[in-house]
Design goal:
Helices cover 34% and strands 12% of the residues. By secondary structure, it is α+β, with helices and mostly antiparallel strands. The chain folds into three domains: 40 residues, no CATH class; 38 residues; 44 residues, no CATH class. The chain starts with 5 loop residues before the first strand and ends with a helix.
């Protein structure tokens, strides 16, 4: 079951938000591993989830942290990020970035084109941004060939 379908109490202190999800807490804004939820329950049926083994693909965010910090330092100023956006980002980096799963055991979604992951799909937050950028082709049409998409984005 996808982590978004698991709910429970946030384990982060002092938060303890009662309706956190298995991937993040809307109370404190921190990322969560579904296994760390207190009193986890299925958001669909209310049953206690059963832990099962499953092979997944992760992005090693800790590995790219130095380059990401450099990019954020420049782009947050250049892009005039809000104080809230910069503080949220800095807190994520301060806490340390961890591997982030980009695959799911779902029947719908974008299939992962690897034999060992034939029954899995990409997690929507991973593949959706590609669609946001590529859809500009429908909007800009022929102008896309002239690099006008850069102005759009």
């Amino acid at each position: 079951m996808a982590d978004r379908f698991i709910g429970g109490q946030c384990h982060h202190k002092p938060c303890t938000f009662p309706d956190a999800r298995g991937d993040q807490c809307d109370g404190c804004g921190k990322l969560i591993d579904a296994l760390d939820l207190i009193n986890p329950k299925c958001k669909l049926c209310g049953a206690k989830p059963e832990l099962r083994k499953s092979k997944h693909i992760f992005i090693d965010l800790a590995k790219v942290t130095p380059e990401l910090k450099e990019w954020i330092d420049v782009q947050s100023v250049k892009g005039k990020w809000s104080d809230n956006a910069k503080q949220f980002t800095d807190n994520l980096l301060k806490d340390g970035l961890h591997g982030r799963c980009i695959s799911r055991d779902l029947k719908w979604g974008t299939a992962i084109p690897k034999k060992e992951f034939k029954d899995k799909v990409f997690y929507v937050w991973f593949d959706a941004p590609i669609g946001y950028i590529s859809i500009t082709g429908n909007y800009l049409g022929e102008d896309l060939k002239n690099n006008d998409w850069k102005k759009w984005w």
